[in-house]
Amino acid sequence: MPGLPKFPFSPKALLVIPAILLVLIGIWSSFYTIQAEEQGVVMRFGKYSDTVDRGLHFKIPFGVDTVQAVAVRRQQKLEFGFGTAGAKNRSQVSNRDEWQFEREMVTGDLNAALVEWVVQYRVDDPKDYLFNVRDPDETLRDVAESAMREAVGDRTVDEVLTIGRQDIEAESLQKLKDLTTKYGMGLTIDQVQLKDVNPPRPVQSSFNEVNEAQQQKEEAINVANGLYNRAVPKARGEAQRQISDAEGYATQRINEAEGDAARFTALYDEFAKSPDITKRRLYLETMGEVVPQLGRKIIIDEEAKQILPLLNLDDSKLPIK
To answer: Which residues fall within 8 angstroms of residue 189, CB to CB, at 6 or more apart?
Structure first.
């Protein structure tokens, strides 16, 4: 066509351009990045080759090496009998139609209970997680449901609804850990938690009334125990005080008696040393106490012939004996 420039055509150009594109694509696909919460499982020709940590890494391009990132530092959970919107893990929530079947369980005394629970877990070994079990998350759901039904089936409905919740959680957790280890699933089970446990809806109102009555009973018992704990220590303290007072009084009386006895013994010892002197002293002391109480008296020797020289004749009121 006149007016258009002519470029030299070379058959080699048809080979060079694809080769350059191929090299660029190979270089671009030779590098990959593992995020902070992940580990990468490298497979060469479809067979496990290596596990790499976070960061930038190199791999053989063109499908020779493939890498699958597994979140190992993220805690994941499975919900049974209910579901939370916006779940990132596709196995976290089952189909809504299955929720009712998941929560319905039979207890050991052949009663029914509605149980909702959660399993929290993490990937511990990416290699085992990817290669030992097909679809490990769904397998974990089945294993967790089996462990929970076994734990609930070993208890009465009263235990399931009231005091047995912690035991059920602990038993289910241990069973689940044992099974995941046995199957080599590469998972670590962190927690099994019961969210909501109720009796079947037709009897739920009756159960609530029974539960309310039990709570009132417990409240009355707690009030009575409180009164008991206040009254009994007070009575014991009062009794102890009276005992202490009695012991103090007894000690005082004993000490006084012992003092009197010691004083009497000391006097007796002195009397034993000089009995005549002691008798005279006691006689004189006694007479000193008795004579003043006799009034005005004249005491003469029995050999005296008369008393006139001794009388005060001016005192007409002087008694004469």
So the answer is: 119, 120, 121, 173, 176, 177, 180
pLDDT band at 177 (very low <50, low <70, confident <90, very high): very high
Residue 9 vs residues 1, 75, 76, 87: alpha-carbon distances, Å: 16, 61, 61, 58
Q: Are residues 83 and 200 in the same domain?
A: yes
Among candidate residues 124, 136, 130, 132, the one with its CA nearest the CA of residue 41: 130
- pTM of the full predicted structure? 0.59
Q: How far is CA 108 from the centre of its chain?
A: 28
Q: Judge whether 3 lies within some domain.
A: no
Among 136, 141, 156, 161, CA closest to 101: 141
Angle, alpha carbons 200-150-179 (nearest 5°): 140
| Cα–Cα distance for residue pair 77/291, rounded to 1 Å | 114
Q: How much of the chain, in percent, has pLDDT values that exceed 70?
A: 85
Domain residues for the domain of 169 are 76-206
Domain boundary among 186, 206, 226: 206
CATH of the domain at 102: 3.30.479.30
292: Cβ–Cβ under 8 A, 6 or more apart, which residues? none
